Amino acid sequence: MKLDSSISAVVTGGASGLGKATVTALRALGAKVAIFDLNRENGERVAKELGALYCEVNVMDEASVDAGFAKARAENGQERCLVNCAGGGRGGKTIARDKKTGEIVPFKIADFEYVLGLNTVGTFRCIVKSAAGMATLDPLEGGERGAIVNTGSVAAEDGQIGQVAYSAAKAAIKGMTLTIARDLSREGIRINTILPGIMATPPMLGVKDRAPQIFDNLAASVPFPPRLGDPSEYADLALTMLRNGYFNGETVRLDGAIRMPPR
């Protein structure tokens, strides 16, 4: 797919980090972009800065997602590209022990459901809504109607202690990618997933400010290059997945060859 001013795209979580980098890259090519994000202040600022459209969207709420797509399509037309970057986690072991009393503390099921709802269900919700719209479009050259990129995590394969909910949520995104690619194949819609490693997103840059030694140790743990990934490198891979018409049903690690240890 050629990415230019004829293409409309939606990027969830597009107001910061990996999402903002992707919006920046798409806008540099002239694509019309709608930013789906809950943070109105950031979203409006980034949209103005990059010449994009901001839609206040909570991916965990179906009515909010529907309203976001309606606004984006009214302004930019039916999207041919969707990049899902919205997500997050809540840490904790499956069971832990209170350090003072030794009491067993189970992981809260509500937190587990929240993390899966935000990452897995939120991603799938946007896929379903977007694919349904893409299917109404006339095919481009080669029969393609649209392309989707999801954001997983290396935690899907190397989940560390205390990442049970996040690992499960991201593993589910990885696991559904090929199935969705097969489901959408007759409609000419492709889908792929990126599994980022340790990226220099705002939360990680916050670690650098609060605990520079921990940040430096994280960077040094990456085999090569020994640093955190830049969000622009994520965006570059996302654009490759959108452009390349034979890239379909894949999950790709973007991690400098790191394999996360248990801790």
UniProtKB/TrEMBL annotation:
Gene3D superfamilies on file: NAD(P)-binding Rossmann-like Domain (3.40.50.720)
Recorded GO MF terms: oxidoreductase activity
InterPro entries: NAD(P)-bd_dom_sf, Sc_DH/Rdtase_CS, SDR_fam
UniProt KW keywords: Oxidoreductase
SUPFAM superfamilies xrefs: NAD(P)-binding Rossmann-fold domains
Keyword Zinc recorded: no
Family classification: Belongs to the short-chain dehydrogenases/reductases (SDR) family.
Protein's name in the database: Short-chain dehydrogenase/reductase SDR
